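Input sequence (236 aa), recorded before submission:
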Amino acid sequence: MNVGRPIEAETSVGARRAMMLIMHRELCLSFRRPEQLLQPLVFFLIVTTLFPLGLSVQLSLLRDMAPGVLWVAALLSSLLSLDSLFKNDADDGTLEQLALSGQSLATIVIAKTLAHWLVSGAALVLVSPVVAIGLNIPVSAFATMLLGLALGTLTLSWLGAIGAGLTVGLRRGNVLLSLIVLPLAMPLLIFGAGATDRAISGTSAAGALYFLASLCVFTSTLAPFAAAAALRIALD
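Predicted structure, token format:
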């Protein structure tokens, strides 16, 4: 009698249930700390709003600069909340308890990273049309802009999980985290801004979007195991 498959299926169901419980916990904690939830959004809105006000430029020039401004602000805003991805749980001992719960660290990383993206990256994507109107981005480019930002912020969350895992044991690891993640995020900035710029000019942005999607798939495959290995070293 083959009992391997039922045991494997039960383990998979248990991992999915644990992932959902961890995500629910992270979302509840995020909404209990509204300052951490609003900080990236406020920074994103302030940067993208003050930029056109601080420069006396024509609307056509503002539209040309809009993709770069939008993506730089989005990437920097996402970095603000990456330091707390594992650090709070590591400081109060929750991370050790999660590691001893019987679930793999990769499952814990996936759950916490997805929850982080929902309260930071997805929120930036939702408010980006308001910012785009202020930057004179045409409505016809909104679909490409939203898709590109969704892929880019999710990829940045996966990259941030690796950086947060490497710096979780450091007292002032936020600076080192930025130095680790920002160079890796340069392709996101280049191709994300390029996709938005192509959508504004009316040309096809499929190539840049495909590249962003491939980066998202690659990081989502590699990052959980890399971050789990970093956390395992920090916990030992």
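Checked by second reader. Residues 17-235 form one domain.
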